[in-house]
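Table S2 (text version). Query chain:
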Amino acid sequence: MSNLRSTRGRVQAGLLQGDLIRRSLAAAFVSMLLVFLGTAAGAQDAAGALVATVDGPITPVTAEYLIDGLQSAADGGAEVFIVKLDTPGGLDTSMRDIVQSFFGARVPVVVYVTPPGGRAASAGTFITMAAHVAAMAPGTTIGAATPVDLQGGEITDKIINDAAAFAESVAEYHGRNAQFAIEAVRDGRSVTADDALELEVVDLVVRDLEELLAEIDGESMMMADGRIVVLNTANAGLETYDPGWLRSLLLLIADPNLAFLFVSLGTLAVIYEVANPGLGLAGIIGIVLLILGFFALSVLPVQVAGAVLLVLAVGLFIGELFVPGIGVLAAGGTIALIAGGLLLFEGPFGIRPVVLWPVGLVVGGGVVLAGRLTWRARTAPAASGAEALVGRVVEVASSEGRTGQAFLEGAWWRIHSRTGELTEGRPVTVVGTEGLELIVETEEDNL
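Corresponding structure-token output:
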């Protein structure tokens, strides 16, 4: 009995101990779960602000990047979508697409003009004023939104009036200074960050994103569907919106300097392939560069006169291959290429002189060299085929009067003497070809 009670006591003690262990494990599990949930909540807070960066002209690729980023912010439950902006302006159509997406956004949009020394010029003015919150860093500017005709024509009153009306409507949509918006279009007015704040063009002047998030915390924003959203950004983390490698490449290519460089060097590579055909590597590289260049030209606003001069330059460069001389055509092509580069883009899409002049001179010099290579190849003796055998001395293997056979360059050839008869075992000199027959002269003929 005592053993049984002892055993029963040990069993009960084991059960109590097991229950204690189970409860301890349960408590540990709950604690870990709470920690995990807290971490997940912290991670959710860390993704509270999705940040996109625009540093350069406004193009269709830029518009697609911002529209997709805004959609991603809405789908991911971000607290706010922030656009860090520094732009000289860009295309009117792309700017309007961005403004429309901001007006119809499902999450609050904040445009922050930064870094110090940056600007929201031309199209950037409209984009900034279209945001729910417009902020600027110290030392930045906004304005100068007068339309520019990238085709070289004169800006009509109709275009100015349309742009001014659009600027006024954008400013009034969020209760900003409509008069400044009109003056930025009609007079090209531009102001500093502090002046923009005083004129109620923007809402905030802040040093960095952290200060920006602290300032807008608790603000109420009305969305396009009528919802009122209260911002909770005091502890919100920042998550960068990655455009992806493909769009990053497109954003990089959509640059007037790269477009000019790709087209110029691509043309030179193709010309070298035509001048000195070989493995085709130069031609392949040239075609790839031309495709990239033409893609960039299709994205960027191209002036007609500049495009015509660019085509003329290509034509003159090709002509240099067929009429090589002192490089007159190559020089004309170089002038046309540089002039085309000067006129190809205007406004914020101009080509930098540090790219324009060296590329033009290098391509022009390269074409002159290609012309020389082409001329040398045309005048050089044949390096293959029957014509390459002219001048060679060969021994007659068999003869039948003036005809016979000879073994040369690993093959049997039928030979024919125009004058003297052929003698087996005697040397003869190849002087020409007729089809697959070699014309030879005997030693007596050469005397």
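Notes on Table S2: The first strand starts at residue 49 and ends at 55. The chain has four domains: 1-43, 47-245, 255-379, 386-446.
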